[in-house]
Amino acid sequence: MPEITDRYFKHIREQNVAGVAALFASDATYTMPDGRRFTGDSEIRGWFSKLFASLVLTPRIVSTVATETAVAVEIENILPDGATRRTANFFHLNSQGLIEALRVYQQG
């Protein structure tokens, strides 16, 4: 299952809203480190459109742990100001292999 996370982060680096959105189930949820939650295709697509309009992300995968239905990925982002942001991303997949829930936690 790590291939879905590889595609996800590839689309993030490319700022490909349609590519990212296609990886989510239509009723998926996406939860941000600050607790904001986006549900369904329209809200998730809208969030990524807004995000990509304001920030270029360059996620680098640090480590991955996967089972048949879940993937945990630690990433590192170098922000435009040179700061580093590390997050832990927990992907839960449905029976079709699409993301049904993604929770992102920022590391200290």
Q: Helix/strand/pairing class, anyone?
A: alpha+beta
Number of helical segments with 4 or more residues: 3
Number of beta strands: 6
Work out the helicity level: 25-40%
Please compute the radius of gyration using only Cα atoms: 13 Å
Could you report the average pLDDT, rounded to the nearest whole number? 94
Distance between the termini: 27 Å
List segments where confidence is low: pLDDT < 50 over at least 5 consecutive residues: none
* Topology order in helix (H) and strand (E) letters: HHEEHEEEE
The CATH architecture assignment turns out to be Roll
Strand content: 35-45%
What spatial order of strands do you see in the largest sheet?
2-1-6-5-4-3
| Silhouette | globular
* CATH class label: Alpha Beta
Look up the CATH topology: Nuclear Transport Factor 2, Chain: A
Main β sheet profile: 6 strands, mixed
Tell me the domain tally: 1
How would you explain this protein's 3D organization?
- 31% of the residues lie in helices and 42% in strands.
- It is of the alpha+beta class and 108 residues long.
- It has a single domain, classed as Nuclear Transport Factor 2, Chain: A.
- The mean pLDDT is 94.
Secondary-structure map:
Elements: H1 2-14, H2 17-22, E1 24-31, E2 37-39, H3 40-54, E3 60-66, E4 70-78, E5 84-93, E6 99-106
Key terms:
single chain; 108 residues; alpha+beta; Nuclear Transport Factor 2, Chain: A; 3 helices; 31% helix; globular
Write a concise synopsis of the structure shown.
This protein has 108 residues and is an alpha+beta fold.
